[in-house]
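Structure in, sequence out. Go:
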């Protein structure tokens, strides 16, 4: 099992930046898939970005060139650097980890971008 705790959300003006962190309760060295998802009010949860154990990344088209996902296995932490934020990025952001058949989620952190 692994517990995930997100932090770093908040209120920011359009064009600003935030860095989200996802701290895991145990080593993430063996966790091949870690990702960030988001859910806006009235919408389904969607993938923002994910990163594999060897550092391969994948991004939603809507965030390409603005967001960067990274992982620090030594700190058991995954990050999401968000630049050039837009009001449509407003959502609760969730960290996700997949190990074998198990799927783990954090409690989420609110990101609000004002225009």
């Amino acid at each position: 099992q692994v517990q995930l705790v997100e932090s770093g959300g908040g209120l920011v003006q359009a064009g600003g930046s935030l860095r989200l962190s996802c701290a895991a309760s145990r080593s993430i060295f063996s966790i091949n898939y870690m990702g960030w998802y988001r859910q806006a009010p009235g919408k389904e949860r969607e993938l923002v970005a994910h990163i594999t154990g060897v550092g391969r990344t994948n991004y939603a088209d809507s965030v390409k060139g603005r967001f960067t996902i990274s992982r620090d296995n030594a700190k058991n932490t995954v990050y999401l650097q968000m630049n050039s934020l837009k009001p449509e990025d407003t959502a609760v952001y969730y960290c996700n980890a997949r190990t074998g058949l198990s799927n783990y989620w954090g409690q989420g952190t609110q990101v609000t971008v004002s225009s």
